[in-house]
Design brief:
ATP/GTP-binding protein, four-stranded antiparallel sheet, two-stranded antiparallel ribbon, 5% helix, single chain, mainly beta
């Protein structure tokens, strides 16, 4: 007699935002910053998304494959998500906005 196979039950139904907590290779936690609740997700960076993001803390690019954080206000949509370097997110209270941007540059 052959051993039983352990099968993972298939997931049926529509996906929701709560279903993808492991999607980015990290875990999600609530944090408070500037009197507002934020959702913070650690991203492992091992994925092959091929995207680069601009960190709002230092205004530098986060290359593809680098571990980082994604943070957004708890009561907002996915359009408010921002990708931060982990060290920039940890130092967000000690940093000031000294970045000189041109008039046409985006604010994120």
């Amino acid at each position: 007699m052959s051993p039983r196979r352990n099968r993972v039950p298939s997931r049926k139904g529509p996906r929701t935002d709560e279903d993808d907590s492991g999607r980015y290779g990290g875990y999600e936690s609530p944090e408070t910053w500037q009197g507002e609740e934020w959702r913070v997700r650690r991203v492992a960076g091992g994925g092959a998304a091929g995207k680069t993001y601009r960190c709002p803390g230092c205004d530098q690019l986060i290359p593809s494959g680098v571990p980082h954080m994604v943070a957004w206000p708890q009561h907002s949509g996915v359009d408010e998500r921002r990708h931060w370097h982990t060290s920039c997110w940890n130092a967000r209270d000690r940093r000031t906005s000294r970045v000189q941007r041109s008039r046409n540059a985006p604010r994120y």
